[in-house]
TrEMBL record:
SUPFAM superfamilies: RNI-like
Pfam families named among the record's database cross-references: LRR_6
Protein name: Leucine-rich repeat-containing protein-like
Region of interest (Disordered), ranges: 30-50
Compositionally biased intervals (Acidic residues): 30-45
Lineage, opening ranks: Eukaryota, Metazoa, Chordata, Craniata, Vertebrata
PANTHER family in the record: LEUCINE RICH REPEAT FAMILY PROTEIN, LEUCINE-RICH REPEAT-CONTAINING PROTEIN 74B
Length: 383
């Protein structure tokens, strides 16, 4: 991934063109509004593919005509190859622009230089509240610059940093952000490389966080003690409602820690733990939390090697908690048996609103009598 920011001569030319396009857009964003007449000529920033073909004068003059330009609240420039230069050109206009609420720059090769330029602009902008910077090769240095900016700008409520190669060093800055930014509501850290040490840093920060309601750390490397430390942070958190930790490696140790957290946590409503190497032993430990929890509505534990025994144990824990708020219990891709089905029927009586999703469709085989074979007698056989 380190070579993605070392652009060839051809890529550099494309980057310059993207920078020019960003400059054209910047000129439009800075243009003054015209009269209050019909607004049919509004620029829809969602479809700016032809931006490079427009010149600054055209955009500027268009905004000065008799049309009424109502600035769009969303600036979507994902997959445009802006690169550091393009983002630098764009960032200069974000400082004072009061209209953009959502900024989508996913997959633009920002790298560290672009992240630093954008961070400087976002630290001074008070209107942007939703930022998507996924797939931009930010790395630890880029994360550091952006987290510092977000800590200053309390207006940002949703941040997406998926697929940026974030590791342990970046986790330190993310943990500091969780402690400093009380206005942050949603954070997406999926598809990164956060592992054990990251879990040990993020867990305590999660415990102290006072505002985050949705967190996605799926497709990382949270395992063993790091996963357990992360889960313990959930125990003390009193704001988080949606947590996705799927496709990590929590294992039985992490599942046990999550179970303990569910005993005390009375806020969490949705938990995705699919594909986390949880065996039947870990499922039983997780079930201890379900026996006491009264707020969790959705629990997804699909694609775990807990077998039918683990599924049965979890469902038995739900049966033992008539105050359970569960609405969906997902065991997809885990084969269960008739004993589980019988228990599910009993649980449905206690919790009629509960939907239980199980493995692949099972075929019921019917016993069929084989045809009776009569002895073969030759036609010329004597009677």
């Amino acid at each position: 991934m380190s070579s993605t920011c070392e652009r060839s001569e051809e890529n550099q030319e494309q980057e310059v063109e993207a920078a020019a396009a960003a400059g054209h857009l910047a000129g439009f964003l800075e243009a003054e509004d015209g009269s209050d007449a019909d607004s049919d000529s509004d620029l829809e920033t969602e479809g700016t593919h032809g931006l490079g073909k427009l010149d600054r004068d055209t955009l500027y003059l268009g905004s000065r005509r008799t049309y009424s330009v109502v600035p769009a609240p969303e600036l979507n420039l994902r997959h445009r190859g802006l690169g550091p230069q393009g983002v630098q050109a764009l960032a200069s206009t974000l400082t004072s622009n009061p209209y953009i609420k959502r900024l989508d720059l996913r997959d633009n090769g920002l790298c560290v230089a672009g992240a630093e330029a954008l961070a400087d602009a976002l630290s001074k902008n008070s209107s942007v509240c939703d930022v998507d910077l996924s797939e931009n090769q930010l790395g630890a240095a880029g994360a550091q610059a952006l987290c510092a900016a977000f800590a200053v700008n309390q207006a940002v409520e949703k941040i997406q940093l998926s697929g940026n190669g974030l590791e342990e060093q970046a986790a330190q800055y993310l943990a500091e952000l969780l402690l400093a930014h009380t206005g942050l509501k949603s954070l997406d850290l999926s598809y990164n490389q956060l592992s054990d040490q990251a879990g040990e840093m993020l867990g305590p920060a999660l415990a102290e966080n006072t505002g985050l309601t949705e967190l996605n750390v799926s497709w990382n490397h949270l395992r063993g003690p790091g996963a357990a430390a992360f889960a313990r942070g959930l125990e003390a958190n009193i704001f988080l409602k949606v947590l996705d930790i799927s496709y990590n490696g929590f294992g039985d140790l992490g599942a046990s820690a999550v179970g303990e957290a569910l005993k005390a946590n009375n806020v969490l409503e949705q938990l995705n733990m699919s594909n986390n190497r949880i065996s039947a032993v870990g499922a039983l430990s997780l079930g201890l939390g379900l026996q006491a929890n009264q707020t969790l509505r959705i629990l997804i534990v699909s694609r775990n090697p807990m077998r039918c025994e683990g599924c049965f144990g979890l469902l038995k824990s739900v049966q033992d908690n008539p105050a359970s708020a569960l609405e969906l219990l997902d065991f997809s891709d885990i084969q269960v048996n008739r004993e589980f089905d019988d228990l599910a029927s009993l649980v449905k009586v206690i919790l009629p609103g509960l939907s239980i999703k199980t493995g692949a469709h099972r075929v019921e085989y019917k016993k069929e009598l084989l045809p009776v074979l009569r002895p073969f007698l030759p036609a010329s056989a004597p009677k």
